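User: Hello, can you help with two protein structures?

Assistant: Certainly.
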Amino acid sequence: MNIYYAPPAQIHGTAAELLDQEARHASKVMRAREGDQLVIVDGKGGRYEGPIRRITKQSVQIEIQESQYFDKPQPELLLGMGIIKKRDRLEFAVEKAVELGAAHIALFRSRRTIKENVRMDRLESITLSAMKQSLRTWRPEVTLFHSIEEVIASFPEAQCVLAHEKVSPSKMSFAHLAEGKDQPILLMVGPEGGFADAEVDKMVDAGAELASLGSHRLRAETAVVALMSQFLS
């Protein structure tokens, strides 16, 4: 099943409109025709279905016959991730985080960050594609922060969990974190080389909980998948 994206501004009562790349994908790539049924999500919990009524050069117009609204998944998962040097690995981590339910991806620079420039437009495109591929109705935000402190300060209500290779593997239970479903969970993963000791100390002082992902060292993008998968529902 193909899912298409139209933000709330393109949903008008019983009509929805695909524009730009989404319209081209439907009409040119998938060769949709008038009368074909399409499924649309608005990235804010809305899911709509109905037939195509008109195709123009700029848009695909749909009559909404069925609509549903889905609440945000609970607990709300926020991923804080140190910027990974290699672009393909960074993009892989972002894609998998979306598929696994991240509501917000906070990229940050830290003491051991090597890469400086990040193509945010590419990451926005990846989050959109991953949202549709995984049949989700909420589109995650992607934000770039200049420090770990900025990340922590931006999510003051969240319970912070820090993946750290020096923590005993016995600390691998995450079940107790999901019990407080009204509280977001901020999952922190460092860049290549991990977190500096001073950064770990600051996060612990701010209330972060250290957690182990096993006895073996993981790449940053693998750690993202391992940590996020602890909260699959």
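That covers the first. Now for the second protein you mentioned:
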Amino acid sequence: MVKYSFLIVLVLAACGAQPAPEFFGAERYETSRDGRDYTIFKKANRFEVIRLGYVARGDHDRIRETMLEVVESITKCRIKPNTIQGDSGEMRGSLNCS
């Protein structure tokens, strides 16, 4: 039983960040900022950003800001502020890439 539990954990850990179904086939980017890892998916004018790893209770506001900065830096597009959905673990929204 222990062997199977270890195998399941190993397989899940190898998966990394996976996109939401609407981002299947999207461009995938991986980056680090301030010691944290982020995965960004861009498809047409939409994005999804996923933070990997643990965040302490008081750091969530700062992480949300960093996530948005990372998206704009990687995609070279501006985020449409009124389209942002999500939290400090995963966010989605629309981009203006004109």
